[in-house]
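>> Question from a student workshop board

For tomorrow's exercise we were told to take the sequence and the ligand below, predict the bound structure, and bring the output to class. My setup keeps failing. Could a helper post the expected result so I can at least see what it should look like? The ligand is iron/sulfur cluster.
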Amino acid sequence: MPMVKMKCDESIPERDKHIYQTEADKSIIPSCNIATLPGDMTERGCAFAGARGVIGGPISDIIAMVHAPVGCAWYTWGTRRHLSDLYPWALPGRLANAAFNRRYCVVTDMQEKDVVFGGMKKLEKSCLEAIRLFPEAKGLIIFTTCTTGLIGDDVQAVARQIEQKTGLLTFTAESPGCSGVSQSKGHHDFNTQFYRQVHALRERRPELKMRGEEKTPYDVCLIGDYNMDWDLKVVKPLFEKIGVRIVAVFSGNERIENLVKMPDVRLNVVHCQRSAEYIAEMEQDGYAIPFIRCSLYGIHQTSKALRETAAFFGLQERAEQVIAEELARVEKSLAFYREKLQGKRVAIYVGGPRVWHWIKLMEELGMTVVAGACTFAHADDYAKINARAQAGMLVIDAPNEFEIEEMLLETKPDLFLTGLKEKYLGRKMGIPTVNSHSYEKGPYAGFAGMINFARDLYQGIYAPVWRFQWGINTVRGEENAVE
Amino acid sequence: MRLNEIPVEGIPYDQLKIEKIPCAPAYAERAPELVSAGSRTVVVNPNRTCMPLGAMWAVLGVHGAIPFVQGAQGCATYVRYTFCRVFKEPATIATASFHEDAAVFGGRRNLVEGLRNLVVRYHPEVIGVVTTCSSEIIGDDMVSFIKLARAQLRQEIGPEQADRIEIVLVNTPSFAGSHLEGYDRASRAFVENMATVRDKPNGKVNIIPGLLYPGDIREIKHLLRHMGVEGIVLFDISDPLDAPLRPPQKFPYEPPGGTPAEQIRDMANSLATFALLPHAGQAGARYLERKYGVRAVVGPPPVGVQGTDQFLRTLSAVTGQPVPESLLDERGRLIDSLADTFHHTMMKKVAVMGDPDVVLGVTRFALEMGLEPVALAGGTASKTFTRDMSVILKEAGFTGDPLLLNGGDLFEFEEYLKKLPRLDLIIGNSKAVDIAKELQVPLVRTGFPVYDRFGYQKRAVVGYRGGEILLTEIVNSILGYQYPDDRTHQL
Ligand code: SF4
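>> Workshop helper replied:
Here is what the output should look like for this input. Compare the format with yours to find the bug.
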């Protein structure tokens, strides 16, 4: 019985086709990336979240102009932990407390009358003012949301005017919350629209391209890394040490000027293959830039990523050296965690690809993934899960809250890796959780990050609190800290 | 810096050296003609969020109730996310999951199917249907959609069960007001739908707390208990959003507590309704007064000495119960604390930001400590804020001329603070943390939202005891920031 029927879904059989158990032949792909059942208590977010929160948010030196009522902007202000090192000044001689991309929340604040009469004037004025207020910004991206998408403001026209009037690189990301079925639509929209706009921009202003003499034969672009909790701080040096140059990261802590140079590289290395492979594919078609897929989580996968990148440039030897060095740095601590985590069972609920990114990593620590769920994964994500998972793992596409509870109840994991919304639910059931969305205390990527990750998993499982949760008469020993 | 070996503790934050790169060569003033929010169109760093959040907050305070958000998924998901960040608790909120088809054809199918799917799996006693900008723009006819949904439910689960479910509609087009307005509208919608009979006086008082935290609501209940007064707290989030960890849980998770439906139905029988934070709750109170003659007591926030005094005096007048010794002792302890600390607080310059009622309540208390307000920013524009604030300043005999922001945004607030010759303290929510750190003054956290520290939602600032907690925090922040250690051996 490959497809799984959950008890909580008895009255909504539409959900059955989304839930399965992995099998030896690895052939099952659930229904995915389709409309959410209204009222099923979904965990999904909106397309705008995908465009503004995930991809637009990490860009370090642009004004993110949210053309919307105040809420859409307020909710995406400094929430995801996509950090940056580019800081505005707070006072003479003192930099701000947060990087530019998280310090300011800029919004047109649509009011009733704007909804009735249209918001383009307001948008144009807002953009011009914001550009004067923030002369340090090197670009501006206009994001539409439900309100402005529905009233049909022509934001592209406004963007053209702004660029003409100010010369500032101006982009649009039209991905209102009610388009598509999840955040994934927003990723896709941002990728395609940004690619097209960069393409047109380079035609219009060829001086923005990388000049011939600036190029090196080892130029790459790292696509689909958003610098969660400074992942890039551990990831970038690895690539640099093997001798490649990262010209741009799409889009973690990246400057807009470098993003415009994306088509000038020799190779794209794609980390998040759900939210950003689109742009790699378009660059392959449009600029004949090949791409490789990789995962930068865990020892094995990170090594593999370095090896494959190196192989493309003939830098294998240096890659081996770097890998050996890095391994030596983490060996001892890793051994400690392997011993502590051996045999533990985990459930993972994430947006999409991290389930498959982390199956191998958990194995490296001696743990098994007993259940995995993805908010917005597509068929290729499930194929990747199947390729990596042991048979018998429970997989849920676009789970709702009730299913997550049943999943935890049925599979009884020792630990639940999940985002912020669901982690408190897991805890109420007495199951330790680790924030797999913005991390507990990252970075988690690469070799060094793996120790942080293992530490947080360990802290989750071994926290003393779990021994006290069963009531006044039953303080339990460590061995059955989790029932 | 590069560690040769990564220790078991991993890379602690202080070891992960990030070199901060300035955006510009040097500090330059922000265009002065655009600093004031009134002189520009764009909003930078809003001091408020949108209407549906307030309505969802309210619904979560009703026992067995689930909010159902008629709109696209983000509006529900972002609010859940916000509640989780603030309360560190699960927040169960359903969404109609609008996709393109809803944007084109309207949200009827989403509502009818959505309510059905919610009811057959979660069996809520109450559903608060909360609209959004999308459903309002599309023009969903919610009343008839809900009728249709109920008709279908009657067929599927039987009329008796279906009719037992209260479905309360709260219209909250986000572009028409802030989160406070959303809560305010919910207060009216709930009493209008559920408190429909005035038959037997119940001798109770209604309390509509507004966006106060669980700790505050518990403190209000404590005051009522000592007064010997029975109260109906609408919307009582104190247990739902501060629930104990005591597995095993029920499946699906159902938070404890919340205002029981029968209590809401009884609200027209009460002696009076206290809307503690007027901008979030007076609509409900005034409705009950107009329709059933239940006296509405709107504000002031029961914060500090006079705020709490006034609350208890009115409560006493309404119920005939005297203020007991036990509360007079609590008052005495707060007075004692003020007497013990004024040397540290007087003449210190304070800025307060947040929701207007929070700013009003806290500023009044700050004046009681002898703090001197220099900037007061109420995030939601209000007809009464400026007037009420001048009354408070006058009552305290304060002759300074603080900046009053009625609405506006935090950009204006912070740019003003930067120019001040001196500032000692900011009182406000987590959205002020950057500015406090940059100005190197302490931030005393209170109001919504506080997400960057632990535990504030569990503590009270209302009542005399809450006053002591807030005072303690203020005094210790000043001591910690401004006093050299060897001056604190004798305070
Ligand atoms: S209004 Fe639309 S875009 Fe904004 S948060 Fe809600 S769903 Fe997302």
